[in-house]
Design a protein that fits this description.
homodimer, about 325 residues, alpha/beta, Isopropylmalate Dehydrogenase, 3 domains, about 45% helix
């Protein structure tokens, strides 16, 4: 491939609204005057994709469709995908990244499968024990807070958590332009003596490292943005992430319940809901545009299953930013030394 | 002591608004026509309490003040309290429960100290390895969801989680009148094969037990009320609880931020806030009136630090209900057999 452009592959069959969201997101990106330096490779069933692109009235020549007859669902087991779905868009996307056709691969599909396939095909960065997935949480600070790991690894060692801290610091410094970002260790109290054996050992490692470690943080410190990065094991992180995503469901339910308690409440609610919705848009995870599989030897990005076209576009831009920032080189340098 | 009344001790120096909240809450309870069968023992500095009771205009003869010259703060280490604060209201409250002067003891103070002191002085129910603290979470179901453990024990064994399931089931069945309540095990996925070694082993234990075990539940299932009870280790539970309590802070911040973006937003917000506040009252943890230290051989109840007089009253009624329900006998029978 001879091109000066950023070559990014998109799993067109990944998200809940695929392939429409993926197609529209791809064209949002390549039609943006600021991003004329991006070449998109849309991976998925050729027949389906070409038909949809036509129906939606886009110019087929502005991107490359890469055929992949199989599809990975949200319920597929990662191990099964590796064994039986080598012709899937998720698998082929990782392969064309490995062999250099593209410089990054992004999917709004099955997170577990994406991590397993990316780790297997692309390998790990030197010095990394376990690749990890982080997630941005809204906060009362100027920036969202980056929490990792949110589900990659459940039984782990202090060294892994230390590596998460290093990788998270480099990612946040580059992506959010926060110099020397603060790292907190998620725990049940501030004191060094608190928590499980795992976090106590990790505390010691982090205290002696070059990471800007501010000590233990508690559950309430995530939204409070006490630190820029919060480190935890994937068991806790995954539970906290899914719990956080369910807050809005609870809030909507309580609003609805209230509105059904008589005519006065119905009117009060009707007056309130449009403003509330406007405010809650800021809680939207989509604007962050996906998060990378940190530690994987490549640029492999996972987006929310419910990604809208705008979320897909933001995911593509995130991929481009990751390529430019050369984050993986920085991670290797930090962990090898 | 010869009386047919329910004798309940209250730590008057415990909560953030002590002793005012505690005094007012106590009188709310004893002045309630439905609760004329309660005798309150207010434990704290005699001089301070008598003065406040006078100032607030209550009838001093309607309750008993028990003198305790020391006070436990929220920052006191539980071990220090046991060693150095034997004259504190928290310690003496537990002692007069142990020696039979009262049948229950409640505090809105230091949770860790309350657990340590209760466990040491009152001992454990036969068959219980570790006493536990649960917490009610609001939900989209008819009832709140009871999550335990939320901070008592961080390094634990499958057997402990099984005991939590048994104790939680009995407590919820008696207190919320839910027959054979559903128990979920907090995990990162629904499949039996998911999660840490601890939860995988616990899954097996629960599956073979008499508990109404519905399997693994995820972070989003708490608010969704997929089960009536959610079992987890104290590390995860404590982080989730503190994280949940910080959600309203984030929401308030976002509302304020929105209102500061111009005059139109200011007006929109002003119209919305009173209704929103009314709705958010339903998220108020205070209405649940404290939770027991389950597994302790006595009725030892802990309330939220920010307990209002109404919360204190509800805590007293919770204590009375616990005495009536004879929960501890039921726990012993279930765990010994």
């Amino acid at each position: 491939m001879q091109t000066n452009k950023f070559r990014i592959a998109i799993d067109a069959m990944g998200g809940d609204y695929s392939p429409i969201s993926e197609i529209e997101g791809a064209y949002l990106a390549i039609n943006d005057p600021q991003h004329q330096d991006i070449d998109i490779f849309l991976v998925g069933d050729e027949f389906v994709l070409n038909k949809k692109i036509n129906e939606l009235g886009y110019d087929k020549n502005k991107l490359t469709v890469v055929h992949a007859p199989q599809q990975v669902t949200m319920h597929d087991d990662p191990t099964d995908v590796i064994k039986k779905k080598k012709q899937s868009s998720l698998y082929i996307g990782a392969e064309i990244h490995k062999n250099g056709i593209v410089q990054a691969f992004a999917s709004a599909g099955n997170t577990g499968a994406m991590l397993a396939v990316s780790t297997m095909i692309l390998g790990r960065i030197k010095g990394v024990s376990r690749p990890t997935i982080g997630s941005f949480f809204p906060s009362i600070g100027k920036n969202p807070v980056f929490v990792l790991d949110v589900g990659a690894t459940v039984d782990l060692k202090p060294r892994y958590l230390y590596e998460y801290a290093v990788m998270g610091s480099i990612f946040v410094e580059e992506m959010l332009s926060i110099p020397n970002p603060k790292v907190g260790l998620l725990n049940v109290g501030e004191e060094e003596s608190k928590g499980t054996e795992l976090v106590k050992e990790t505390y010691k490692l982090l205290k002696e490292s070059k990471v800007n470690f501010i000590g233990n943080v508690e559950g309430r410190d995530i939204f409070a943005a006490t630190s820029d990065i919060v480190i935890c094991d994937g068991f806790v992180g995954n539970i906290v992430l899914k719990f956080a995503e369910s807050f809005l469901t609870l809030l909507k339910f309580k609003v609805k319940e209230f509105s059904e308690q008589g005519m006065v409440n119905k009117i009060k609610t009707a007056l309130m809901v449009p403003t509330l919705k406007e405010i809650l848009l800021q809680f939207d995870y989509q604007t962050y545009g996906g998060v990378p599989m940190l530690g994987v030897d490549g640029v492999s990005i996972i987006g929310h299953g419910k990604s809208s076209p705008l979320a897909i576009k933001n995911m593509i831009i995130r991929a481009k930013d990751m390529i430019i920032a050369e984050i993986n080189n920085k991670i290797e340098t930090a962990l090898i030394n």
